[in-house]
Design brief:
Blueprint: E1 3-9, H1 13-28, E2 34-41, E3 54-56, H2 59-63, E4 70-73, H3 80-89, E5 94-96, H4 104-116, E6 121-123, H5 131-141, E7 148-156, H6 179-194, E8 198-206, E9 218-225, E10 230-236, E11 245-252, E12 255-260, E13 266-271, E14 276-281, H7 301-317, H8 328-338
Helix pairs in contact: 1-7, 3-4, 4-8, 6-8
Amino acid sequence: MNSINYAIIGFGGIARNHALAAYDANLRHNLPYSLNLSYIVTRKPIEISVPGITNVTNLQTVLEDPNLDFISICTPNESHVDIVEQAIAYGKPIYCEKPLASTLLDAEKMNKLVHENNVINGVAFIYRFLPAIALLKEELEKKTIGSIIDFKIKTYHNSYLNKEKQGTWRTLKTSGGGALLDLGSHLIDLIHYTLGNIKEIQYQSRIHFKDRSEVDEITRGEILLDNGTLGSVEASRVFAEEIQTDQMILFGTTGSMKLDLTNPYIIQIHDFNTGSTLYKAVPEKHPSMRFYPKERNSLGFFQNCHTAAIIDFANKLNGMKDTIGADFTDGLKCQEVISKLK
């Protein structure tokens, strides 16, 4: 396969990260194929100044193109299921922005469709591609801090303090949820990916700006994993700090591990027995750095992760077996946990 051609469905903010990923991938990584953005599908025509990209307003036109290898869904949550149904009819592989859907019922339907029709699928849970997460998983396997007593993972964003967010699609009930679905879904996937499946969760949730949002702005969840480990997750869209909080902390019987999700090259390991703290950096030759740039070449952790995630999905299409990206089954697992928020 000399080229992998894809179409982005929708062209809001997150779609631009999916688009930039193709150019970043081709310019900075020695791929066995060229990753090409061929189409951008929008409801109304837009001007595209980049050569080689065609803007269309009819999804079927794109799906009928035999040279199209996959679609990337970047539309509001409630529209995902309809787009997946259309793509399935043409057998097109599907890469979908998180969350998988706006409702558990839609997520179940989407997962069933791709499996019944043997369609390759992926979900953009991009935090999996942070090199520090790969390092954390290795340290967990080595039991560097003993058995896990507790964990805390949280993300505090401030964007919905902006009054202009009132009435935007992510503030409406039709989106399926607020801070937990939008931000917390990344965290829930990280818990599943690094620590194990969530067995039980109890939520506390609130809306502070009731005139602006119909969905949760702050949500905390107390968690019990299948293996008996306790922990918590917290997501907010209305917490302002000098430096944004995106943090994961694990407390073990012989110490702790901490990482800042926005600083993807280092984990902090504290040893209770010696009282020492090690700041362990990800080696430049580490497997997790294969499609992730060195710190001096970073475009920011968010874009870096999007690029790595789309390369991973393209690699799956190209027949590679060592991919780590989330799929619709993983997306459904997250949706099941989120759906327990009433």
